[in-house]
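Summary: Need help interpreting a holo structure output

Steps to reproduce:
1. Submit the protein chain below together with the SMILES for 2-oxoglutaric acid.
2. Request a joint structure prediction with the ligand placed.
3. Inspect the structure token block that comes back.

Expected: a single structure record containing both the chain and the bound molecule.
Actual: see attached output.

Input attached:
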Amino acid sequence: MSTPAAPSAPVTDEEIQSYQRDGFVRLEEFFSGGEMDVLREAIDDAIASHRDRILGAEKGGRSSDDYERVFNQMVNLWVDCPAVKPFSLSARLAEAGRSLSQCRHVRIYHDHALVKPGGQVSKETNWHQDAPYWPMDPLGSFSAWIAVDDVTVDNGCLHFVPRSHKFGKQPPIRLGVEGESIVQKMKEQGYDVAAPATMEMKAGGVTFHHGCNFHYAGPNATDQPRRAHAIIYIPDFVAFTGGGEAAGAGSEMKAGGPWDHPLHPIVAGKE
Ligand SMILES: O=C(O)CCC(=O)C(=O)O
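--- attached output ---
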């Protein structure tokens, strides 16, 4: 797969410093309303066609009814949904992430649509870090989270704990299990955990967060789904450590080796 042309860095020095210091940054109006209409329709079509959560996985990759209440998480949508591909492989988005993380190039680990259902069934995305679930080392991988709908506290916008990425990778907590919280665990161990920042934004806004950042989204209390689309990026200096079948290429790659596989193309920067 060819490498998309690298546009000039779409982030400022302040945004780079803010990401490095706090482990997250919010970029409002990154995509246009029209672009979000396209992405929203593509995600809705995938839901209407009962698309697997993980392509080819047992039971379509659905883990539990409880987890489905946190969100319908469809992984690697760029592979089988042509309308999603320009967003997941967006050179502009990837270049923003590459600049923020100050690395030579980034590959995509996987994308995932994250659709939080509305109403009584909706459950919170409990406080967690992402890095404990990723088969890679050293730290440095990160996510871009695109607000496909306007996101508010009411419908489950993200919340980030500033500087929490500096705690490094902690033991994983059980996702979707009520009461499990990395913030609570760290406080119980005596760590000084900063107050969270709330990431309300209009559709088309994007947040980037480091894989060790503590983050959370409340239940969606509205009667409409909260649609988001996230892309996980791997900097050039990060190696594969084995496993990670959910992202589709684990069995074809060598532990300790590079991420050289068609499912993990370079999307910004140079080899
Ligand atoms: O969308 C959500 O509710 C949570 C997203 C998340 O945990 C992530 O993108 O890492």
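--- end attachment ---

Reviewer comment: The chain has one domain: 20-269. The first helix runs from residue 13 to 22.
Status: needs-info
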